[in-house]
Design goal:
- By secondary structure, this protein is an all-alpha fold.
- It has a domain of about 100 residues: Tetratricopeptide repeat domain (Serine Threonine Protein Phosphatase 5, Tetratricopeptide repeat, Alpha Horseshoe), CATH 1.25.40.
- Helices cover about 80% and strands about 0% of the residues.
- Helix 4 runs antiparallel to helix 5.
Length: about 500
């Protein structure tokens, strides 16, 4: 009886093992068949895409337009074939959407992602596929700048749906925290945004996914967001790591790498390393020219920032020349009232202002104010317009604009923010020029109490503070205090720009 029982147990066990292996083989076979169908679909998609192009000619109407047409033609060709294969269809749609987004075909990408969202319920993993699609829609809307609030809603939907998944994959979980980090940072909550990025980073790293596309994408957003919490050294480290992984994975330069060089240049500017900053901006420009052409918006972006570097270092003619070039590129690619066009006009106006071309500067700034309705940007432009009024003796008009900026920035960023400190510095300088030294001293003191806590010790903004405050102290006869401030300003300018810089030489005129 025991022998029969044992034999029965063995038979049941063997049957169970056989059934388990049969199920496993069936599942693996289904996966393999699905992957094979996916590969065949992608092959067909590529064939259809390139059938639409002329292999004997490279003379397209425009790279971006041709790419849009090719992707749309390929997508239309597979739409009819894949409705019975939702698991394959959604993978292809997500890939096409990503390709469309990468060439700035945002409207087409949104349509494609919404198609993916609509078929998610028909797939074998509907919740996971909806989460993946919401994540992609979130990235699309942040890149597109169509609606950051909508991007935030997509990210929150993805997070809520993630809670219903019992054991989400590390890639899925980290991708949700990555988009949360991105959209939260874009909405100016940088501390919370970076906490999401850190969580995503730890999930990817723990799972050994550092070479995945998703991780590299997250890392890029993380490095850029660190700029806005003034963690410049970590920002540079993260962005350099992103570029290293890009190079290792794709074995070629990419526009993301070029854009990262721009942000690395930005970090070095904030750290006072202007030679290094200029070198990275030039590297970004060179790579973007190689990848997108001499007159593309992509090329103009780092050129715009390099013009800012020249302005900060006192090289106003070079700044004006570069800003004029940027403006020309933007006008050739964008609508006249586009924000980028206005930004280039603003830098051009600043360069002209510092060269005494006051009427030209005022005309440019006034035109921006008339055409723009973005309050946070208008506040900055009106601050520059106030400097024109100061230089032309219209002090009351300058003070009125600066007080408006002070009120706006206090309400938006807080009374101890760097923006408020800069507004106070600008107000102090106007009052000094008016001869109201007592009021100027009050504002300089308030500005100093904020800015020394908001900027690193050797930051160029502090040199601006010390130099202007020193001029006030000199005007009221406090020679010793003035010299101490001039020395601090000179040391910072010397470290940032070198001994031949116009900024450095300007302060040297007041030393001793």
């Amino acid at each position: 009886r025991r022998a029969l029982a044992a034999a029965g147990l063995i038979i049941v066990s063997v049957a169970g093992i056989g059934f388990y292996h049969f199920n496993r083989i069936t599942v693996e076979r289904n996966i393999a068949e699905r992957e094979a169908r996916k590969a065949q679909t992608v092959k067909g998609f590529l064939v259809d895409v390139f059938r639409a192009s002329n292999p004997r000619s490279s003379n397209f109407e425009g790279v971006e337009l041709s790419a849009r047409q090719l992707l749309e033609n390929g997508k239309n060709a597979i739409d009819q074939d894949l409705h019975e294969e939702p698991d394959v269809y959604i993978e292809v749609l997500l890939a096409i959407g990503e390709a469309q987004k990468n060439i700035d075909a945002y409207e087409e990408a949104e349509i494609t992602y919404n198609q993916a969202l609509s078929i998610s319920p028909e797939t074998s993993e509907p919740v996971k596929n909806e989460i993946r699609t919401y994540v992609q829609l979130g990235w699309l809307h942040t890149d597109w700048r169509k609606s950051q609030e909508q991007a935030h809603e997509y990210a929150l939907k993805a997070r809520e749906m993630l809670k219903t998944v019992e054991k989400p994959s590390p890639t899925l979980e980290a991708s949700v925290y990555g988009i949360l980090g991105r959209v939260t940072s874009v909405l100016d909550d940088y501390e919370l945004g970076n906490s999401y990025f850190e969580k995503a980073d730890s999930i990817y790293t723990a799972a050994g996914l550092e070479n995945s596309d998703e991780y590299i994408k997250m890392l890029t957003g993380y490095g850029r967001a660190l700029l806005y919490v003034s963690d410049y050294e970590k920002s540079e480290e993260v962005l350099l790591r992103s570029n290293r992984l890009h190079r290792e994975k794709y074995d070629r330069p990419t526009l993301t790498m070029a854009e990262n060089y721009k942000f690395i240049a930005w970090t070095n500017r904030e750290l006072g390393n202007f030679d290094r900053s200029n070198a990275y901006f030039l590297k970004s420009i060179e790579l973007k020219r190689e990848l997108s052409g001499d007159r593309s918006v992509q090329v103009a972006l780092p050129m715009y920032h390099l013009a800012h570097n020249y302005m900060l270092s006192g090289k106003f003619e070079k700044s004006e020349e570069l800003a004029q070039n940027v403006l020309s590129i933007y006008r050739g690619n964008l609508q006249p009232d586009n924000q980028y066009v206005h930004q280039a006009m603003n830098y051009l106006a600043i360069a002209k202002l510092h060269q005494g071309k006051l009427e030209e500067a005022e005309n440019l700034l006034t035109k921006i104010v008339e055409e723009n309705d973005v309050e946070i940007y208008l506040t900055y432009v009106e601050t520059q317009l106030a400097k024109v009024y100061q230089e032309t003796g219209r002090f009351e008009e300058a003070i009125s604009l600066l007080n408006e900026a002070l009120e706006f920035n206090t309400n938006k960023f807080g009374a101890d923010s760097r923006d408020v400190g800069i507004d106070l510095l600008n107000l102090a300088t106007v009052y000094r020029e008016m001869g109201n030294y007592e009021q100027a001293d009050t504002y300089y003191e308030q500005a100093e109490s904020i800015l020394v806590n908001e900027f690193p010790k050797g930051h160029y903004r502090l040199a601006e503070l010390y130099y202007n405050y020193g001029k006030l102290k000199l005007a009221i006869g406090d020679e010793q205090d003035a010299q101490e401030r001039f020395k601090k300003a000179h040391e910072i300018y010397l470290n940032c720009f070198g001994d031949g810089s116009p900024r450095t030489k300007e302060v040297e005129n007041y030393l001793g």
